[in-house]
């Protein structure tokens, strides 16, 4: 009985997995194709050059000729610092919003959420003028600092998470005489591992995928990010699909790595589960 | 006032500094821009409410607004149900579950271009796998999922849900792991079925997360347009254009920044009031562990 | 003798001073271009330019079009425009009107031998009037629409290839014979032709029938009867004769894949697609190009088609006008390697265009001269301020005139209904840009 249920569960897991994986597989498979092979009426999933000595041609072109690793390094730096910054700023403010009382709290929170609702397309030019005034043009600062400080999403995430931690925990700690900082750092934060992990995954991804800001702010090619690097394969009259998708595969690897690295916090933080196999 | 008067402000200080320096200014500027005619390359010209008047009288704007409402109303519940389903599915200690968690996250990070190409290929009436399967099952005259103005928007919604479920899975997963096991054990001793566990333990205890995800999904549904770009470009004849797409096009294709800004603020008014209403309604269905 | 040596001394001194001054004053130009795929060739070209002009250094940035426009617009608003940058015909009017482009008419008059260039194409970069205005940008390349046809399919059907005197009836007959549909409930296996609301698909037919979409001043939408006739012909191809797929059947496929993948036998689009076809099609794919057939109402001598030039402009605020002009001259001149043009994109310099490297006699299509001949005629376009809004193009390809014509192709509305909708919406756009009729 237990075995049958387990098998059924695995079957379900695999079926769902099948439906989520195929565009990714196509992307990987296309990265081994030639320009000409990408376009055919019935797309072949197995590239002709697979396991031949030409197999890695696209990767070689991208890494050597287009210097793609440089862009990936830049993106890694930007996304990592911005995501770490968000963890700090958002966990602090999320804690304050969830557990503390202060004047204008809900108004401030409302303003934070409001910034999420105005599309960046209409604020980017004024923002650009500010960055020029600050002398931050052609540096990573416009990509990192604002995103580091104002994480509306992350603040909201931590707020929801901290709100759900029982007051009894807080009460007990107060009786033990902890101060505000200790309460946050020693009592709440250690319990927030799943929230930390999910915010890091998402913040890293959002910063990684940002295109408009790098396009507006970065001038020198050695500062370009991976998303900008990918756009190098789009021309006025056509797209180099095989290279574009090879670049996409490379620039997805860090996202997967971050996701896998953060996984253990989900397992560790697992206190219970609704379904047991 | 257990935390005193000063501590809260210290905790929110970085956020306030960032908000004041980098967010408030550009938003106020954008608001002012919404009263101007501005093609970005020359100076803006004040023209009062003209942009808002144009919005109100523009047939396309109303069509796009309607599309946006349809999009949000279908996307938000869809992605929440799918995200929660995935989260519950992978919230076990089964061997190899990490692998499946990774698999379900793939659509979130797969390049939008690749997703657009593959889904277009699947749905294409000419080359597509889905129409061919339906043909073989005897269904002829398969509609054009992306090319027919009746289906294009809903087809896009399905693909967006497919892409973003993994994202919400992570958020739900974090929430699920915040529920202490004792609650489940207590319920099991009372002889609760898995469905009852879900209904009476998981969902109520997950409500702060659910509320958070609902607001985020709503905001997301009004902001994303990358797949629209890759798959329909808002077509056919604006049938799948949503406000976010329309704002982008006006800002950076037509270079009508003033008009785009006015659109953004109308949208803001709508989302803002819905969000506010949700926060008000929150106390009726969201419960914390206290 | 003494005086001579003194003079020599003075000359030498002046020359040395000038050389020193010249060596010290290295000018740095910033150049933005919009096609990263050709960035390498452009960079090589610029190296050559720098070698010839040691006192000028060029910093080039290449960005894809969807990044390029937000970026240089932001730079314009901050007063930081690069000295030299690419300019598209779609945005040219606006940029010229806002005073961001340098008037280069005098420089053109001074330095260029007009005979060397496809001068007719220059007209797209004149402002305010296309015929009499001054030049505010200069093309380095141009394209024109042609009728592509698949030779094998023609041979198979026993048809002779399209000729200059083809009528629309001849075209229709051929399209019928080239269409293969075995099950009427399913999409045809092959269509004789295909079109949808795209500018490069529609306008060539309108012009081939001497039709007009805009009024004489190009300030209002005004379809004339000949334009209507052309649209009706296109609509009938799809809705009556079924020789062209409805838009909804080809959506989701890149439109320029259909011809090289042998899904259609004929296609009208810009000549730059020659490169695209060669890249995507099988090696044994044989194809030719022909003129877009003249319509039944064509006025002799008024069957011209449009040009789509890619241009280079100089910023009105550049500090180095002469150096920038030197660069521009170099970029549009005969030093440009043919490889920096896609096959089918024509160099503005006639010497280059008529070279064997460009004509590529050994490859299909074997009559590239046809494109050059079209370049000698008068060009006509529908470009106005607000063009991307009312016409619908690229990211906005589903709206405006493009979107309305897609509905015609889908059989959802008649040509007259489409014309009415396009005129109404288009004029609401144009009224904003040209308040006075």
Set out the fold topology:
The complex is a heterotrimer of chains A (277), B (290) and C (437).
Chain A: H1 2-30, H2 35-38, H3 57-65, H4 68-99, H5 105-117, H6 120-134, H7 141-149, H8 152-163, H9 167-175, H10 180-188, H11 193-209, H12 212-217, H13 226-231, H14 241-268
Helix pairs in contact in A: 3-14, 4-7, 4-8, 4-11, 8-11, 11-14
Chain B: H1 6-33, E1 36-37, E2 45-46, H2 50-57, H3 59-90, H4 97-109, H5 112-123, H6 129-136, H7 152-176, H8 181-189, H9 194-205, H10 207-221, H11 226-231, H12 243-252, H13 257-285
Antiparallel strand pairs in B: 1-2
Chain C: H1 2-24, E1 27-33, H2 39-52, E2 56-62, H3 65-77, E3 84-88, H4 89-97, H5 105-111, H6 119-122, E4 126-127, E5 134-135, E6 138-142, E7 145-150, H7 151-156, H8 168-178, H9 199-208, H10 225-239, H11 247-250, E8 266-270, H12 273-280, E9 287-290, E10 310-314, H13 321-332, E11 346-347, H14 350-353, H15 356-359, H16 369-376, H17 387-391, H18 400-409, H19 415-433
Parallel strand pairs in C: 1-2, 1-3
Antiparallel strand pairs in C: 3-10, 4-5, 6-10, 6-11, 7-8, 7-9
Helix pairs in contact in C: 9-10, 18-19
